[in-house]
């Protein structure tokens, strides 16, 4: 394997990556990582056999045991961290592989060493809820970029690429839309049930409203299972109170609904 003198190809590759503000990525080397872990397991099997019936142990033996266990745990922790990073999209993976081949293939002759799982270091996108991600993809970029990101990613901003962070405008707009939607989820069913009231109509309206509320909560906002369950149950209880009040049995239904909300 030939290596260019002074690693000029490596330095030029990094300069190109910085100049184009490319989102930096790395290869996970799955096979090598697993090989390393299994190889250390074999070494620990040998140490286990050695210490199984040992009556004494030298300081060197104990030091070897300590270092082997430390290396084994470190390898597992490192592999877990690498696997937790966001994978490069499949359509971009081939392009990045070809880019590495174009720059570094002469070092490895005809060997294809660039095939691996590609991943990003940055995980900020994973914390953005689906609704804010939708707004960031649809609104003009001058509204979706923060000042800091616009300064740090000038090339991406000029090329019209999407931002990574949520801008204050997008965050405030998302809060406003969610707040208005929450109010409409209460007002619209009540208005529907208030005209030409009937028990069948009210029950259908409540059932459909709860279903749509749960659907919007599940796919539009990032919530835990408990938060989604409590929110949906509370919303259903509020509608049941209105149904009971608008029918003749308001006192009984309202008492039952209040008891349900108190238990949340």
SSE topology sketch:
Elements: H1 8-19, E1 25-27, H2 30-52, H3 59-84, H4 90-104, E2 118-120, H5 130-138, H6 141-144, H7 147-152, H8 154-158, H9 168-194, H10 199-220, H11 225-246, H12 250-262
Antiparallel strand pairs: 1-2
Summarize the structure.
The protein is an all-alpha fold and 264 residues long.
Structural description of this entry:
It is a single chain. This protein is an all-alpha fold. The chain folds into two domains: 120 residues, no CATH class; 95 residues, no CATH class. The chain contains twelve helices and two strands, in the order αβαααβαααααααα. The protein has a two-stranded antiparallel ribbon with strand order 1-2. α2 packs antiparallel against α3 and α9 packs parallel to α11. The protein is flat. The termini are far apart. The relative contact order is 0.07. About 3% of the residues have low confidence.
Overall pLDDT metric = 82
The major beta sheet can be summarized as: 2 strands, antiparallel
The SSE order reads HEHHHEHHHHHHHH
Share of helix, binned: 55-70%
The structural domain count equals 2
- Calculate the terminal CA-CA distance, rounded to whole Å: 66 Å
Unreliable stretches covering 5 or more consecutive residues: 250-257
> How many E-type strands?
2
Separate helix tally = 12
Oligomer: single chain
- What overall form do the CA principal axes indicate? flat
Structural class: mainly alpha
Our estimate of the beta-strand percent is under 5%
User: Could you tell me the radius of gyration in angstroms?
Assistant: 30 Å
Strand order of the largest sheet: 1-2
């Amino acid at each position: 394997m030939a290596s260019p003198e002074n690693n000029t190809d490596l330095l030029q590759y990094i300069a190109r990556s910085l100049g184009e503000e490319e989102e930096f990525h790395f290869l996970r080397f799955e096979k090598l990582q697993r090989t390393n872990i299994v190889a250390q397991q074999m070494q620990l099997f040998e140490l286990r056999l050695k210490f199984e019936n040992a009556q004494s142990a030298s300081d060197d033996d104990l030091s070897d045991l300590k270092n082997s266990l430390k290396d084994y745990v470190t390898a597992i922790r490192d592999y877990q961290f690498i696997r937790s990073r966001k994978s490069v999209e499949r359509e971009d993976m081939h392009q990045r592989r070809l880019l590495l081949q174009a720059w570094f293939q002469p070092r490895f002759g005809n060997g294809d060493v660039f095939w691996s799982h590609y991943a990003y270091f940055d995980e900020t996108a994973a914390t953005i809820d689906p609704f804010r991600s939708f707004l960031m993809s649809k609104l003009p970029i001058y509204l979706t970029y923060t000042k800091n990101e616009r300064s740090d990613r000038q090339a991406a901003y000029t090329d019209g690429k999407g931002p990574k962070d949520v801008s204050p405008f997008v965050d405030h707009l998302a809060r406003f839309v969610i707040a208005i939607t929450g109010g409409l989820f209460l007002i619209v069913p009540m208005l529907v049930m208030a005209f030409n009231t009937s028990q069948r109509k009210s029950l259908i309206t409540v059932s459909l409203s709860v279903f749509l509320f749960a659907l919007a909560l599940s796919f539009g906002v990032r919530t835990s299972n408990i938060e989604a369950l409590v929110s949906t149950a509370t919303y259903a209880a509020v509608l049941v109170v209105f149904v009971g009040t608008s029918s003749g049995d308001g006192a009984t239904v309202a008492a039952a609904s209040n008891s349900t909300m108190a238990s949340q």
